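Hey, I'm writing a tutorial for new members on how sequence and structure tokens pair up, and I'd like a real worked example in the thread rather than a made-up one. If someone can provide the structure for the chain below, I'll link this post from the tutorial.
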Amino acid sequence: MSNSSLDDLGPLELSTRLIDESRSDVRPNRVTNELSELDDDLAIVESFSHSVVFRTGDGLVAFDSSGPQTGAAVVGAIRSWSEERVDTLVYTHGHVDHVGGSGPLLADAEARGHYKPRVVSHEAVKERFDRYRYTNGFNLNINDRQFGHGRVQKALQFAGEVDAPERHFLPADVAEPTETYQTATSLTVGDTEFQLHHARGETDDHTWAWIPERKAICSGDLMVWVFPNAGNPQKVQRYPGEWAASLRDMVELEPELLLPAHGLPIAGKHRIAEVLTTIASTLEELVTTVVDMMNAGASLNDIVHTAKVPDEVLALPYLRPTYDEPEFVVRNIWRLYGGWWGGDPAELKPAPADELAAEWSQLAGGADKLAARAQELAAQGELRLACHLIETAAVAEPESQMIHELRREIYGLRRSAEASLMARGVFAGAIKESDAVLDPSAETSDG
């Protein structure tokens, strides 16, 4: 079957084909803002993130509201299916792409004369919201780098535009949780029971739900059709071991329908068990390898370049490292069990980066010599080494046009060679830094 024919399949049919045939040539994460009815009184809106909606006989129950850019479209899709009031909104966790669309959902309730839905989450979601507000600028910078957002705002700032709009990482109209729980809780709405369970995985505030009547699980981001986002280098601590344990808890319930917040829903008890068990085993094996090496006295550098996930595992359609990747997860496992110091005594209390770069440059005979060698290494495909040298050269001579032209070129090669969005975003950020040195006015031209 061709890719175009696969794209025409419904979400359950498509996931079945991808898993059973181990196909990775079709994107399982679709952002269409279109609703699919999976069963009587059960629908999913495929967005970023999805919203999973149950019709209970006493109002709708929605899992996640999608993000600020897609929330209104998701509400429209839900309303094309049902005009019933939304009784309950459950946050699977507090990431903005899951809660940021709650404002339009509440506005829709008000416009229809419905009372506001209750908003249920783990208790740590409130703490996350507080942290997002406290570190607003930092998180905006991270997302600008990771996803390429914020160029218009930067252009306005560069031009001295006094009316540049204030940006909020967490939308100002986000719905605060009205009910929280600690370990587990049960909600009954109409004729449907929802059993909520706390898990630490991608976040410390994650909720997954078991719906016994349907033998269904709303898994949030504990299964997202890419390699688990347990290593993000720009975000707070993740918990790969506990993540794996939560997946095994799900398998024990023998679900027949899995409803993730990104990617395709999955049908079939054995198929779901295979997927969740494989993801759990992959995380467990990575944790075991890292911790065993830590116990044997290995440094972080040794572990990063030793601990691997087999290529055949990464080729599975639900474990491709296109967002996060195993190398980053290794670092997060080290951080969880070993702190921030990687074992290099010189890095415990390092010299300022510019002073160190100046010394290396002097020893090499000048920053231009480092840059030239970086160019040679890049031509040989030694991009990791090339990046170290060009970065040192750029820190030593931060205004050099020649060095930044090479830096832009080398990081362009590095970005093209990477599969994960996180790595590509960081390397794209380095390119933009050099662009700003080469042509400061270019910041105002991207709108």
